[in-house]
Amino acid sequence: IANRLLPGWRTMAMRQTPLTCSGHTRPVVDLAFSGITPYGYFLISACKDGKPMLRQGDTGDWIGTFLGHKGAVWGATLNTDATKAATAAADFTAKVWDAVSGDEVLTLAHKHIVKTVTFTQDSNCLLTGGNDKLLRIYDLSNPEAAPQEIAGHSSAIKKALWCNNDKQILSASEDKTIRLWDRSSMEEVKTLTFDTSVSSMEYVADGEILVITYGKTIAFYNALSLDLIKLVEAPAPINSASLHPEKDFFVAGGEDFKLYKFDYSTKEELESYKGHFGPVHCVRFSPDGELYASGSEDGTLRLWQTAVGKTYGLWKCVLPEDLGAENSEQLYTAPEIKA
Amino acid sequence: MTTPVSVLRLPKGPDPNSRGFDPKSPRFIALCRTSIPTSAGSESDAEQLQEEQHARSVLRETFLRCLLSISNKKVQFRMHEKVKVDATFGASDIDVLNFQVSDLHTPIGVQKEALISTRGSPKPVFQTPESSDTIERIKYQKISCQNDVMLSMRLYVDGLLWRDAERG
């Protein structure tokens, strides 16, 4: 609930109206935003139904479905300008797609379930990781060539990311470690060990911050040194968290189906929202920080406003004197969701 | 008392009849590589455009006739890892994403009926030749003929070998 300061110093408490994006028929396990492009920004969702979808980022409007995978899709990503997409699936392949036409461009065969995919900033290389415990780097300008392989993890890789200007790689595994690798030497530089395997990892390039979740903890590390910056405890086990681009907030979601918003500096819990009908598996801020998207076991994605009540995307700020006025636009009021 | 934030409408959901990626959207028009020079150019010579459209429709028709002609014929597919499989061709779906085949001989046995995925790529896109006088250079190559009856052919799409087909 946020308070809107209105003329005359009256305040009106506004309640968050999440926007529900339907279409998937199974749990949504991963999502990613593109950068800001001349056509806005975009959102891709990975789903156990095997059909990743592309949506307009600020409205949630469906743009297209990438058809081709034959198993659950565990990871999905977009390049910065949203011209390419990549997906990781249980059919032992990673695929690269043209994100404008929806056509499949490349299939990269692996020896086991692929869990994570990510592009370098120039979109020329693709990093993959999965249940075969190997990190692979593909040169997309020469896809027939064998990928470079980095071994070291003793269990399945859940998430892999480029960092430090694509000079290094961060990987999180079921072996309860997060490892930092040097791309050119392919050597392990540093390892973080936890009591349990990490549930999610997000890299914030600006400021080199790594956001990690495990148990009920959301942890922030320096991505270069892997030194701990701070830890925050949530009320429930957390599956994913995301830091706002301005680094004033972060959001988290997990097993109690709720979304939590915290103040990054004070670590204070600011807001929490019910809405999903199942555990939240992934949450990410949009590149402009105006909204965050969550994906859930319930098969939906939901978009949430950072500043509740602000006019943005499909949300419209309506002042009380306009409500019921004869010349007011027809507005849709979302039905009350009784959880 | 709290007031829920108003929304203009709900996010649009998927179209049940299509995989989306609207080719009429501004982003698609601006960014999709088209290999068709005349259509892509801003100043299109009306006559050249018509010629090109004619060539494209000839190619499309040829492609469809190829598909019809190999119906119930033995064909060979090249799959991943250089595996070749023989089957009797049945039909293609409208997006050329799947082929219905019978009697599919795989390395691990014979499948009476099967669907083969074409991976969605390459999607048949018909390119016009550089100059209009080579309009006959269509996208299939006769491999062998007997008394003008085509015995086998290779179907090329976007310059890539897409299909070998033989009269059984």
UniProtKB/TrEMBL annotation, chain A:
GO terms for cellular component: SMN complex. SMART domains: WD40. One of its GO terms (molecular function) is RNA binding. InterPro entries: WD40/YVTN_repeat-like_dom_sf, WD40_PAC1, WD40_repeat_dom_sf, WD40_rpt. The keyword Transferase does not apply. PROSITE patterns: WD_REPEATS_2, WD_REPEATS_REGION. CDD domains: WD40. WD repeats lie at residues 66-107, 107-148, 150-191, 273-305. GO terms for biological process: negative regulation of transforming growth factor beta receptor signaling pathway; spliceosomal snRNP assembly. Keywords: mRNA processing, mRNA splicing, Repeat, WD repeat. Belongs to the WD repeat STRAP family. This is Serine-threonine kinase receptor-associated protein. It comes from Dicentrarchus labrax (European seabass).
TrEMBL record, chain B:
One of its GO terms (cellular component) is SMN-Sm protein complex. Pfam families: Gemin7 (PF11095). Residues 1-24 are annotated as: Disordered. Residues 1-25 form the SUZ-C domain. GO terms for biological process: spliceosomal snRNP assembly. This is Gem (nuclear organelle) associated protein 7. It comes from Dicentrarchus labrax.
